[in-house]
Automatic annotation (TrEMBL):
Protein name: BgTH12-07579
Ranges where the Fungal-type protein kinase domain occurs: 234-595
Organism: Blumeria graminis f. sp. triticale
Species lineage: Eukaryota, Fungi, Dikarya, Ascomycota, Pezizomycotina
Pfam family, one: Pkinase_fungal
InterPro entries noted in UniProt: Pkinase_fungal (IPR040976)
């Protein structure tokens, strides 16, 4: 209540400047914060630093500065919990790089239906299999409910639906198909369910309303879906409750578009249900039906099944969808909602399962389908991070690296881990060799036709992803939430120290240094915040004599990738032996990006560094090399945020150390002190200069801007 009152009083001051757009926007943000407090969607921990500043007698100017930073972070996070751990939307095979476009989301992924369709095509290319011979038998036969689906079919057949009343024909319209689904549901599904008119597990919805279901990333129209039968009847639906999706089409020219729409719907389900194991779906044409299963490794389908001659398989499949158990539908069984909290249940053999209370909204979740699908939750006490991940499909996982790095300074700590599920569990009996693999080299190609598979190695059909859960400590906050230049510098320095220890003590190379993989801890008893390195998904062990094949794949987040690696990628070379020097260069780009964009409202922060992470790798290489080598002062230093004017000398020092005057750093050298020592000392010297100005380690200067830039003029914000 005290926080609510305080923020309300701040809003009163914003009313004094009704004609200032920036302050009007701040007023709206404060209003949204108040609403979230009342709705209990924000916790006390979100305001700990603000409270500490007030108690510590910080100046009004410092408090206002922090408030602006805080509301920017909280309202941005509330609008969209973007994953910090996204993989790229381009084709991904064992020979391709594991790079990411941004720490927030893949480039252009899903901004429009067309861009999402294009991204999904590339994402699933090579991992999509059509016309599997034994799909029907493995999915719908010899199940506990198979006899009931047969009885439903026999009832349908015996009532003349396959004779003179057969609605399926070449002249059938989409409206007639929709009417058939309504009729089939009401006449045959409901009356044959064990519980009367309510299906055992799911209830079919024949629907077509834009924006419903809600809870996804974009408004979608669904032709048909099955949702939880235990839900009360109502006019609206939530993607979190969608179990099966289907699309209807009468015109043969629209089949491909419906397939794309089905894939977009799959994506919405995986976003709303990030721990979903797999999803069932179908595409019904007036002549045939095709059934699909999609998971984090790819998608596979049945053959096109005729529905004019007989609707047996269509009738039995639709009946099966409402009878399947949660496990058979691929639903998450490790979590359950309980009011304003989410309970994560961890099985422990014969012992009582452990239940962990976490905040219901993930702090990170994937927007892609084919990815590691890292999904992270904050424990209610804000002390730990619970991370679910499907991994890369490699034999060696992040957990292996975390175990070697336990209790290591500057690296997030693993408390425990457990494996929950394997993709192979539901796909091990599928005969992928009998189907057609779809590889879309042409962006205009559709997944309607594939090529015959010549390989007989099951290892090549799909990556054997394993869903794991880990409990990590401490729970941190993003590097971009830093409230002072000192905190920013010390956070990066601490992470570099963690990288040094990881390399020299655990013999692990991180290989994906980015803004999203550095966090700041809570202040300790002396008020000191530490920086930490997280996300060892792409790390490799230097102790292994024979690393798996993917160990040589170029990895990293494109924006922060070393120039040499970007050059190789631009030339179509995706395998290269990365070393610690590449990671140190990535730290440099994290530093530069922060100096340019932190301390400014996102609306006015320079965006020219985004030219380093476009879909044109050749352009990425040319521009990054030009900015760093030839135009460092004009493109980089002259764009530093006003708060970072005093660290330009550090930028020069880091550039000199990394590029050794010759601007050619990539000579292999086992002596890691060549880089680590000088770089850490450079950060220490810069931090010492800040401290020498009379600022203690607790009372530091916030980096949030006190000015907002409009064209060539500067106006005071406060």
């Amino acid at each position: 209540e005290g926080i609510d009152d305080f923020i309300s009083s701040l809003r009163g001051w914003t009313k004094i400047f009704p004609d200032n757009d920036a302050i009007s926007n701040l007023d709206k943000q404060l209003g949204l914060i108040i609403y979230k407090i009342i709705s209990k969607k924000l916790s006390f921990s979100n305001f700990e630093r603000l409270i500490a500043m007030i108690i510590g007698s910080a100046s009004d100017r410092e408090i206002w500065s922090y408030v602006i930073t805080m509301v920017d972070l909280l309202t941005t996070e509330l609008k969209s919990s973007r994953s910090e751990l996204q993989t790229n939307p381009m084709k991904s095979t064992l020979s391709m790089p594991n790079f990411k476009w941004k720490s927030s989301e893949p480039l252009g992924y899903g901004r429009t239906a067309d861009s999402l369709t294009m991204a999904l095509k590339f994402e699933l290319s090579g991992h999509l299999y059509k016309s599997i011979d034994n799909f029907w038998e493995e999915t719908f036969e010899n199940k506990p409910w198979s006899d009931l689906t047969m009885r439903i079919w026999e009832s349908y057949r015996d009532q003349g639906q396959c004779g003179t009343e057969n609605p399926f024909s070449r002249e059938m319209s989409e409206a007639a198909m929709r009417n058939w689904l309504h009729s089939f549901r009401d006449r045959f599904l409901y009356q044959h369910m064990p519980n009367g008119r309510v299906p055992t597990n799911g209830q079919p919805i024949v629907h077509r309303v834009a924006g419903d279901p809600f809870g996804g990333l974009r408004p979608r129209k669904l032709d048909f879906f099955v949702e939880d039968a235990a839900l009360p009847d109502g006019p609206t639906h939530d993607w979190r409750n969608v179990r099966v999706v289907g699309e209807l089409i009468a015109s043969p020219r629209g089949i491909c578009k419906k397939m794309h729409k089905l894939m977009r719907s799959f994506r919405e389900i995986f976003y709303a249900q990030p721990l979903r194991r797999f999803v069932h779906g179908f595409c019904l044409h007036k002549l045939h039906v095709e059934f699909w299963v999609i998971d984090r490794s790819g998608a596979y389908s049945s053959r096109e099944i005729d529905v004019i001659g007989s609707q047996e398989k269509l009738v039995r499949a639709l009946s099966s969808y409402v009878l399947m158990s949660d496990e058979e539908l691929g639903l998450d069984t490790s979590t359950r909602h309980d009011g304003n909290r989410l309970l994560v249940t961890i099985p422990d053999g014969d012992n009582q399962p452990e239940a962990i209370q976490v905040a219901p909204e993930p702090v990170a979740r994937p927007e892609t389908i084919m990815s590691r699908a890292n999904t992270c939750y904050r424990t209610l006490d804000s002390m730990h991070l619970i991370k679910f991940s499907w991994g890369s499909g490699a034999s060696r996982t992040e957990i292996d690296s975390l175990k070697l790095a336990r209790n290591m300074e500057g690296v997030i700590n693993l408390e425990w881990s457990k494996e929950l599920y394997e993709v192979e569990t539901h796909g091990k009996k599928i005969q992928f060799s009998s189907g057609e693999q779809v590889i879309m080299k042409d962006p205009q190609q559709t997944p309607s036709r594939g090529q015959e598979i010549t390989s007989t190695s099951s290892q090549q059909y799909y990556k054997k992803h394993r869903l794991t859960i880990v409990k990590l400590s401490p729970y941190g906050r993003p590097l971009r939430s830093c409230t002072s230049v000192r905190e920013f510098l010390s956070g990066i320095r601490d992470a570099i120290i963690g990288h040094y220890k990881l390399l020299n003590e655990a013999k692990i190379l991180h290989r994906n240094i980015s803004e999203g993989n550095l966090i700041l801890t809570r202040p300790d008893t002396e008020g000191i915040t530490k920086g930490m390195l997280i996300d060892l998904d792409m790390s490799i062990s230097l102790n292994l004599r024979e690393n798996p094949p993917e160990a040589d794949n170029i990895t990293g987040t494109v924006k922060y990738m070393a120039i040499e690696l970007v050059k190789y990628v631009s030339n179509g070379i995706f395998k290269y032996h990365q070393n610690y020097w590449h990671d140190m260069e990535s730290f440099f780009y994290v530093f530069l990006s922060g100096c340019i964009t932190y301390g400014l409202h996102p609306r006015w922060a320079p965006t020219h560094l985004n030219q380093w992470c476009t879909a044109d790798h050749g352009n990425n290489f040319r521009i990054k090399k030009s900015f760093v080598i030839d135009e460092f002062e004009d493109q980089i230093l002259n764009n530093f945020s006003p708060s970072f004017e005093d660290v330009k000398s550090l930028a020069y020092d880091l550039r000199r150390i990394l590029f050794i005057e010759k601007l050619d750093p990539y000579e292999e050298n086992e002596n890691t002190d060549i880089l680590y020592g000088p770089i850490i000392r450079a950060f220490d010297d810069a931090i010492a200069k800040i401290d020498s100005k009379g600022l203690s380690s607790i009372q530091v200067k916030p980096i949030t801007p006190l000015i907002c830039r409009f064209t060539d003029k500067t106006y005071p914000l406060i």
